[in-house]
Amino acid sequence: MKMSSKGEAAFRVRAAVRRLNRIRWHAKARSIRAYGANSASLTERARYVLWDPEVGDFSFHLADLDAAARFLAEGFDVTPAQARALLDEPAADQQLAADYADLRRWTLLRAEMALGHRPLLWALIRLRRPSLVVETGLWYGLGAMVMLRALERNALDGHEHGKLISFDPDPTAGWMVPERHSPHWTWVRATTQDALEANLRGRRLDLFVHDTPSEPDLERYELRTAAEAAAPGAILCSGNGTNTPALRELCSNRPVSLLHHDYSARGHFYRGNGISFAVTPDEVS
Length: 285
Prior knowledge:
The protein is an alpha/beta fold. It has helices spanning about 5-20, 25-35, 40-50, 65-75, 80-90, 95-105, 120-130, 140-155, 190-200, 215-230, 245-250, and strands at about 60, 130-135, 165, 185-190, 205-210, 230-240, 255-260, 265, 275-280. The protein folds into two domains: about 5-50; about 60-280, 3-Layer(aba) Sandwich (Rossmann fold), CATH 3.40.50.150. The protein is built from eleven helices and nine strands. The strands form two sheets. A seven-stranded mixed β-sheet has the order 4-3-2-5-6-9-7, sandwiched between helices. Strand 5, helix 10 and strand 6 (about 230-240) form a beta-alpha-beta unit. Helix 5 (about 80-90) packs across helix 7 (about 120-130), helix 6 packs antiparallel against helix 8 (about 140-155) and helix 9 runs parallel beside helix 10. The longest helix is centred in the middle third of the chain and has 15 residues, at about 140-155. It is globular and about 55 Å long. It holds the Pfam family Methyltransf_24. This is Class I SAM-dependent methyltransferase.
């Protein structure tokens, strides 16, 4: 469904406002109050309010990668050492760092590449080598950039070069995705309500990443639709963690395993609701 000119204009107005993020002091102070101080020092909080480019969507480093490695080891048949090595890969990947430096807009992202929970997605892509990854919610495209590079690394290691489909109606989204990934990336510029079911029809996905706004009914629809298209052994991920009951409800009605990892941000005030995964059986009974 084609977006109306009014809808497109609204996206572009919001994008223009975001270019002023560094001086949106009141909005950033609200973020501090909303999320609490966490482990961030007074200096770190003051630095964020005065000059940070991120309002409402935050980049940070995971505080405990060893805990994340143990989580992967317990849920995905890998040793803690192997999991930790995979989690460390994105920070050491020179091509990923170069892509970030080349495409980052200083008004919107920090100079330092901080990937939040995305190293977990990288690790799962490297471990499971999916043929098809689907994400809902593209935003700047940082998550897509990370996942596409992980798929590229799989291909460089001699495996199939998997593909990514991203859904987002915002015409200003996706600018962090390098052009070289275009043969393996499809951006569906529509809402998931309008386009998800049609675009998954006849396909089998191996990894689904829900990263649209934390609206329970929307998340239920996306997860249910993804589950219908899931290949054996597929992983369904909710970046909202425990913020909605949608993934937990899905798991209660299907033969899938529910896994959840609570993480904290290193040196950042952000306190999220973790990240959750549903793992489908390797074989359909």
